[in-house]
Write a structure and sequence with these properties.
The complex is a heterodimer of chains A (206) and B (468). With 206 residues, chain A is of the alpha/beta class. Chain A has helices at residues 5-15, 37-47, 58-68, 121-124, 149-156; strands at residues 51-54, 75-77, 86-87, 102-106, 109-111, 116-120, 135-140, 145-146, 163-167, 172-173, 181-182, 189-194. Chain A contains five helices and twelve strands. Chain A has a six-stranded parallel β-sheet with strand order 1-12-7-4-2-3, with helices on both faces. In chain A, strands 8-5-6-9 form a four-stranded mixed β-sheet. In chain A, strand 10 and strand 11 (181-182) form a beta hairpin. The longest helix of chain A has 11 residues, at 5-15. Chain B has 468 residues and is of the alpha/beta class. Among the domains of chain B are: 45-291, NagB/RpiA/CoA transferase-like (Rossmann fold); 412-462, no CATH class. Chain B has helices spanning 9-18, 23-43, 48-64, 66-79, 90-103, 115-119, 122-128, 138-145, 162-173, 182-199, 225-231, 249-263, 293-297, 313-317, 319-324, 335-345, 362-366, 373-386, 392-405, 408-424, 427-430, 452-463, and strands at residues 83-87, 108-111, 132-135, 202-205, 209-211, 217-221, 235-241, 245-246, 271-275, 283-289. The chains are: A alpha/beta (206), B alpha/beta (468). The interface between A and B is large, with 77 and 98 residues.
């Protein structure tokens, strides 16, 4: 009888299994240093080359995007608050975003420890929106911040969506002599606009 | 099958050092800088040691139930529409990947960095069969264009200077040979790769972790190249070593917090991406690869090397690696982790790697998942010395050393004679390329006039203290 590779590998693994160690204890969030989550988020993001801005209304967000990217002709948006010049629709061929200068998306939440934001396929509509445009703008509710990656994974539930990503800063490389250059393959810049949905004011206290 | 020649890391390292006065010091300085950044990042997390301990326990627990977790991963991934394949070895992996592409008429593939695909020799296999494979990580692309394997698992081209890369790009992608600004070089490659991304019929990635409980797999990059590739063509094939499994999503928190801090000193990679099913209208395949891992699992002394999460911290801290360059190891996995994974994969070809170490133990200290790397290097020396694989000269030298060190009387006589010999002809031993290529660039320090023991006895006499 010919054994399938699946059966063969599982049989080899079983034959060689080391003694089973007890399951590890759950990692609890250690809490982290005191201070406003927003400030920790902002400084972590900046350390990775991203920028953050506090805005109070959808109009202010659009104005900020225009200020950061004055020459942008095509702004593709999947965020409800920002119309952009191109609304990202479900059936768009991702290759069609190749000429987009600025992509805009609303993230689900951010992580103070790392400066990362969590975005999923549902938020991006077309996943390439976060990678193919020359620049990326992310809207984030400053009330939606968790302390660290332990809390982040409890909240993100990455098995529930076909694609989810913690984005932290613009695309970067240090592959030539360790010199950090932004815009390796993905977006050259990442700007996070801290804006509550509906534009309510928020100081980020939890 | 033809046997591969034994890799001589010391001789290859000597060539790296001898090429000029630029490459080796620059390599050393860059990697040490990463080590310093890693230390600062670790200090910034007050529960760092607890995280390492937890990470180690997660990995050990997983290895103890690997069969069950693999089946759980397969079950959950397939429920989400991912097609799961199993490959016993490199050859089967490559055939599975090729068959997927051939059946769909794919001839252009973009790939992100995967040590496993390197290990399988996948790219040459596919290219011989008419499929063009493009590396999209900048460092890996540099190495591909130069016809070299990666020199470091995280920074594949870190042994090259900007001048090397400017020359290479001028030749291969038509950039300005006189411009070696890293910004210009990176931009040139960005433009060149964009065309490949947009033309690709499929994307390939590896995986940093695969979660049994959900069937999702995780890919970490700083360039976003894996995500860009995965978001364009409708077909995504991921190669995953069977040891990459973690039981549950919450375990990712521990491992992700350690990975990039250990690798580069940053709190997270800029893209930590989770794939759990094909895009609308797309296809996703996972190839689970054994290629010697199940055998290694059964070797009590060496199985803990399967805990490795490929951060590269052991390389950055290793004094031997920093001076040798990664290519000296002649192995996909270089540095301290390569010194234990190499002989596990090919005991004959890589039998010299465990001897390319000072056993200083720094690798073990920085490893985020507490692999006892230096102990395993020593254990490999024992295994390899017991076989008939050790060169005669070293066998004799070690035997003689054992005799000398085992007898205080002989040791005293030999050190006395040795001091005289060294004072007379200091470069005979150190400078010989034949006896020791590794030390040919260094001088021995001048021999002291008397031994510590002689000094100690004289001191005692002088002070009139009693002999114990």
């Amino acid at each position: 009888m010919v054994r399938s590779s699946r059966e063969a590998i599982l049989a080899w693994v079983r034959a060689n299994l080391p003694p089973a160690e007890a399951p590890p204890p759950d990692a609890e969030s250690p809490g982290g240093p005191p201070g406003l989550l927003v400030q920790r988020f902002e400084s972590a993001l900046e350390a990775l080359g991203g920028r953050s801005w506090r805005v109070t209304s959808a109009g202010e967000a659009a104005a900020k995007i225009a200020e950061i990217h004055p020459a942008a002709r095509i702004i593709a948006s999947a965020a409800p608050e920002v119309p952009g010049t191109l609304r990202v629709e479900r059936d768009v061929d991702p290759h069609g975003l190749a000429g987009v200068e600025v992509g805009v998306v609303r993230a689900r939440f951010g992580v103070a420890e790392t400066g990362a934001v969590w975005v999923t396929q549902e938020d991006l509509v077309v996943n390439a929106l976060a990678f193919l445009p020359q620049h990326l703008v992310v809207l984030l509710d400053p009330a939606e911040l968790v302390r660290d990656m332990h809390e982040a994974y409890l909240r993100a539930r990455p098995g529930d969506t076909p694609y989810g990503c913690f984005l932290a800063g613009p695309s970067a490389t240090g592959d030539i002599e360790g010199v950090i250059i932004h815009g390796a393959q993905g977006p050259r810049t990442l700007d996070v606009l801290l804006l509550a949905p509906g534009g309510r004011a928020d100081d980020g206290r939890r | 099958m033809r046997r591969a020649p034994v890799v001589r890391p010391a001789a290859r390292a000597a060539e790296f050092i001898a090429q000029d006065a630029i490459h080796e010091p620059a390599h050393d300085a860059r990697l040490w800088d990463l080590r310093v950044r890693r230390d600062a990042a670790a200090r910034g997390v007050h529960e760092w040691e607890r995280l390492r301990d937890l990470a180690s326990k997660i990995r050990e627990h997983t290895l103890g139930r690997l069969d069950a977790y693999l089946e759980e991963f397969e079950h959950n991934a397939e429920r989400k529409g991912i097609r799961v394949h199993w490959a016993r070895d490199a050859g089967e992996h490559n055939r599975i990947v090729f068959d997927i592409f051939r059946a769909r008429g794919v001839t252009e593939v973009v790939k992100s960095k995967s040590m496993l695909q390197e290990e399988c020799g996948m790219t040459p296999f596919l290219e011989e069969r008419g499929i063009r494979v493009t590396e999209t990580d900048l460092g890996e692309r540099i190495q591909q264009l130069d016809g070299q394997p990666p020199g470091h698992i995280v920074m594949p081209a870190i042994h090259k200077t900007r001048a090397d890369i400017a020359r290479l790009f001028a030749r291969e992608i038509g950039s300005d040979a006189g411009n070696d600004d890293p910004r210009y070089l990176t931009e040139s490659m960005r433009r060149s790769l964009r065309e490949r991304f947009l033309a690709a019929g499929a994307c390939m990635t590896g995986a940093n972790f695969a979660v049994a409980g959900t069937g999702a797999f995780v890919v970490c990059t700083n360039e976003g190249n894996a995500d860009l590739g995965a978001s364009l063509p409708p077909l995504h094939v991921a190669s995953i070593g069977i040891e990459k499994i973690v039981p549950r999503t919450e375990h990712l928190g521990v491992l992700v917090r350690l990975l990039s801090r250990s690798a580069l000193g940053s709190p997270i990679t800029r893209y930590t991406s989770h794939f759990a099913g094909p895009r609308r209208g797309g296809e996703m395949h996972v190839v689970l690869v054994d290629n010697g891992r199940s055998r290694l699992l059964g070797r009590e002394e060496f199985r803990r090397s399967l805990k490795c999460i490929r951060c590269g911290a052991c390389m950055n801290t290793c004094p031997v690696f920093r001076h040798s360059g990664g290519l000296a190891y002649g192995s996909i996995y270089s540095g301290p982790i390569g010194a234990i994974l190499g002989p596990a994969m090919d005991e004959r070809k890589f039998r010299e790697l465990p001897f390319h170490s000072t056993l200083c133990g720094s690798c073990t200290q920085v490893c985020p998942v507490k692999v006892d790397i230096s102990d395993q290097i020593l254990a490999w020396r024992r295994v390899l010395s017991a076989g008939a694989q050790t060169p005669l000269l070293r066998r004799q030298a070690v035997r003689t050393a054992g005799r000398i060190l085992g007898s205080p009387k002989i040791l005293r006589a030999v050190t006395k004679a040795g001091r005289r010999l060294l004072a007379g002809a200091p470069r005979i031993l150190a400078g010989s390329r034949l006896l020791s290529p590794w030390t040919q660039h260094r001088d021995l320090p001048p021999a002291p006039r008397r031994s510590f023991r002689e000094w100690y006895l004289d001191e005692r006499k002088g002070r009139g203290t009693k002999q114990p």
